[in-house]
Amino acid sequence: MAPFLAYEDKGMHTSRMPLVLVHGHPFDRSMWTPQFATFARTRRVIAPDLRGYGASPVAAGVTPLSVFADDIASLLDDLGVDRCVLAGLSMGGQIAMECWSRFPGRIAGLVLADTFPVAETEEGRRDRYAMADRLLREGMRPYADEVLYRMVAPHADPAVAAHVHRMMTAAPPEGSAAALRGRAERPDYRDLLTRVTVPALVVVGEDDTYTPVADAEAMHAALPDATLRVVAGAAHLPNLERPQEFDTVLKEFLERVDA
């Protein structure tokens, strides 16, 4: 049984497809604040705090992507959402891929932002376990200080950078560590992408060093029906760094799915 996830559920219950937004690591649902402002005026928008993040229950140990996906399915059940457009960024994008593998019939459109489908390398696996140990030992602030200007571009709006830093420092170390261990063991989703039967949108920040444009291009090539958009002037969080550009791209995609 899924824990009771904290979540936002806003907007109009119309014939338009609900939009479900899945945050990345180590963030929370507030990373989608600009998208709520844009899209809740015309459709239902839902964003949970994932297990171990934000105001949701803290999870220790290991949290596989499959557990995150099952939590989302349970939340959709609780909220009476039969079908939705599912959008995930970074780790959230990998969770969205896992959701497609588990309940594709509930997904009308798939948005994969600043993410990648490849299984972890042995070196990457070791690094994720080491980082999990570090977060438990040091807390979140040293990590947040270190990666802030990879998460957002150095020229990002100071208010946006401050928001991102607050989310990272507020993330529970136990939940963040559990997610890192789970991602270290993730499957390879490349073959899965070739079997996605709904429209997909691949979005990436032009200056993203975690998931470079080349990763987005490879996903775009693998997906049978996909659109690729590169957001100029953004790093790993284009939805916060360049919300107007990100929302314009997402709006075009949602209108296509609605049609």
TrEMBL record:
PANTHER family the UniProt entry points to: HYDROLASE ALPHA/BETA FOLD FAMILY (PTHR43194), PEROXISOMAL MEMBRANE PROTEIN LPX1 (PTHR43194:SF2)
Keyword Hydrolase listed: yes
Protein name: Alpha/beta hydrolase
Keyword Transferase: no
Regions crossing the membrane: none
Residue span, AB hydrolase-1 domain: 19-246
GO molecular function, one term: hydrolase activity
Keywords: Hydrolase
